[in-house]
Amino acid sequence: MNPEYANQLLTGGRPIPGQSLTSDPASPAPYEKPPQFTSIHEAARDVFEYLVEPEVYTQVMELLIDEVPLMEIVQSFIFIGFKEGKWNPDLMLMLIEPIAYIILALAERAGIDPVIYIGEEDDEAEEVAMLGAGLQKERLENMKKFSKEEIQIPEGVVPQDIVQEIETIELPESLLAPPAQEEQEVGLMARPSNEENV
Q1: Per the domain annotation, does 17 fall within a domain?
Q2: Of 102, 90, 97, 104, nearest to 75 (Cα)?
Q3: What pLDDT score was predicted for residue 138?
Q4: Residue among 112, 82, 77 nearest 96 (CA)
Q5: pTM for the full model?
Q6: In the predicted model, what is the mean pLDDT of residues 78-103?
Q7: In which domain, by residue range, is 69 found?
């Protein structure tokens, strides 16, 4: 029997239990090293600075316009940061709410009313599970109120300096605005615009 086929058959293609303990200690994965950030404020600042980069900002706002749930975008940001070794699992879960509010505030500035989570319309969920942790219904309701009404980000959730910067930062034009008209180039032989027809 082919050993590769036997391994596939026995494990279902999943890693063998304990396989991670046999990886080379000389070259650990980024998430196996000490994290880059240990403070929630520093980590939130890092994510904010990444979010306001023009390309990233545009892509995130387009996802929200296409009704991709906000909490799925947040989940991808925090999980990618964990895989890159930016934070440990505990800090990753603590970043859910601050990053959600940062993206909500940026969406509000762009005039976008985002979907918060899957099934938001049904409103039957007591909590939304993200990476094995649940975000309580009360907090989800506060996010919905923030996105629909003009209320402030709850104090202490997002560092105050980031809140102030969100309000004053220059962001790319709203994605909902009509595209700017391009001026046509005038050739050398074109009639000047101030000259009357004879």
Answers
A1: no
A2: 97
A3: 60
A4: 77
A5: 0.68
A6: 92
A7: 38-168
